[in-house]
């Protein structure tokens, strides 16, 4: 993406699980459901709830990352504008149409602005890396031992 291109980073993620129909909860509503099937269905529902929670986190992180990328694009465009202004000012001094001292002050101010904003870009880049790391962990449903622990807790909670 070049400077001046104003593309928005719209990252979206729709969970295929969100449209899943909820099964009936009692055997009276569905005589074919035995207590064993009910436990299995409850465990499946617990798994689906865990997956949906993970998908919600992924969705949120996608939006956060997209917004941060948009802000970085805006800052890069401002950098480019400052540098182009400094270059233009120097060209005017070279061809004699601008005062060298005044141009020097302008260029120094523009370069200071670029240096100051560079810290913002570095901070945003660090936050993007954190967001991407969190996204990668979430797509794996977190550390596997945490996911399994939640799953087993859900399973044994339904068996008691």
- Share of residues in helices: over 70%
Describe the sheet with the most strands.
Answer: none
In the predicted model, the low-confidence regions spanning at least 5 consecutive residues are 1-6, 11-27
Mean pLDDT across the residues is 70
Strand content: under 5%
Given helix and strand content, the structural type is mainly alpha
What spatial form do the alpha-carbon principal axes imply?
rod-shaped
Measured distance between first and last alpha carbons? 57 Å
Q: Measured on Cα atoms, how large is the radius of gyration?
A: 28 Å
Order of helices and strands: HHH
Number of helical regions: 3
> Number of DSSP strands?
0
How would you sum up this structure, described in words?
The protein is mainly alpha-helical and about 160 residues long. Helix 1 runs antiparallel to helix 2 and helix 1 packs antiparallel against helix 3. The N terminus is likely disordered.
Summarize the structure.
With 160 residues, the protein is mainly α. The chain is 72% helix and 0% strand.
Entry keywords:
160 residues, mainly alpha
Write the layout of secondary structure elements.
Layout: H1 35-94, H2 100-139, H3 144-159
Helix pairs in contact: 1-2, 1-3
Biased composition (Polar residues): 15-26
Region (Disordered): 1-38
Biased composition (Basic residues): 1-10
């Amino acid at each position: 993406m070049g400077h001046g291109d104003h593309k928005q980073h719209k990252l979206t993620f729709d969970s295929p699980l969100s449209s899943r129909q909820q099964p009936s909860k009692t055997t009276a509503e569905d005589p074919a459901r035995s207590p064993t099937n009910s436990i299995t269905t409850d465990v499946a529902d617990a798994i689906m709830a865990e997956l949906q929670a993970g998908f919600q986190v992924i969705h949120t992180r996608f939006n956060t990352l997209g917004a941060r990328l948009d802000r970085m694009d805006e800052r890069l465009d401002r950098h480019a504008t400052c540098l182009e202004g400094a270059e233009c000012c120097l060209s005017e001094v070279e061809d004699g149409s601008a005062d060298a001292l005044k141009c020097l002050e302008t260029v120094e101010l523009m370069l200071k602005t670029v240096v100051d904003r560079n810290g913002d870009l570095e901070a945003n880049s660090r936050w993007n890396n954190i967001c991407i790391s969190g996204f990668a962990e979430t797509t794996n449903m977190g550390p596997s031992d945490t996911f399994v622990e939640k799953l087993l807790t859900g399973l044994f909670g339904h068996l008691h």
